[in-house]
Design goal:
Elements: E1 3-9, H1 29-44, E2 51-55, H2 58-67, E3 74-76, H3 84-92, E4 98-103, H4 107-115, E5 133-138, E6 152-157, H5 159-162
Helix pairs in contact: 1-2, 3-4
Length: about 170
């Protein structure tokens, strides 16, 4: 049985209060809409996680809530601005067959690039903008055996595409 990772960067956050502590920054209106649309996209494509690993930042938790999935997230301080090694370590401890991980750049973009065997052919993949979501399959039966370069991209989307915008 394959394992599936859904790797999502949090939706667009608010900078209305520039001096706000970064960890406490909420989503802006566009981010709230994006999270809802990403949840709709996950359901429409049957990319339904049975485990969610979510950074402890307010914006990642609000993104997770906005997806309106039926799985309660495991909120991890270690995923707040995590590097690629920390993300891999967290994934290797996962228990589900389909795991959604919600985090931040630059770590999530680096992790997405490193976990794949072949790059994704999408003009926004390298940038991994807010709300970017990658679906990756692994041939491994156990998360503990997942290594960099072992994943195969199944799908990739950015919220602008779901809103009917380009660029």
């Amino acid at each position: 049985m394959t394992k599936t990772l859904i790797l999502m960067r949090h939706a667009k956050s608010s900078w209305a209060t520039p001096d706000m502590d970064d960890h406490k920054r909420p989503l802006n209106d566009r981010g709230v809409i994006s999270a809802r649309l990403l949840g709709d996209w996950l359901r429409a494509n049957d990319y339904l996680p049975d485990e969610i690993l979510c950074s402890s930042a307010v914006r990642t938790q609000q993104t997770c809530d906005g997806l309106n999935l039926s799985v309660a997230p495991r909120v991890l301080d270690s995923l707040y601005h995590a590097g690629i090694e920390t993300m891999l370590s967290s994934l290797r401890k996962a228990k589900g067959d389909t795991v959604l991980m919600i985090g931040h750049n630059p770590g999530i973009a680096g992790f997405a690039e490193m976990i794949l065997g072949d790059p994704v052919d999408h003009p926004r993949f390298d940038e991994y903008p807010t709300g970017a979501t990658l679906v990756v399959d692994f041939p491994d039966n156990f998360w503990a055996s997942v290594t960099f370069g072992s994943g195969e991209a199944v799908d990739f989307v950015v919220p602008r595409e779901l809103m009917g915008e380009t660029g």
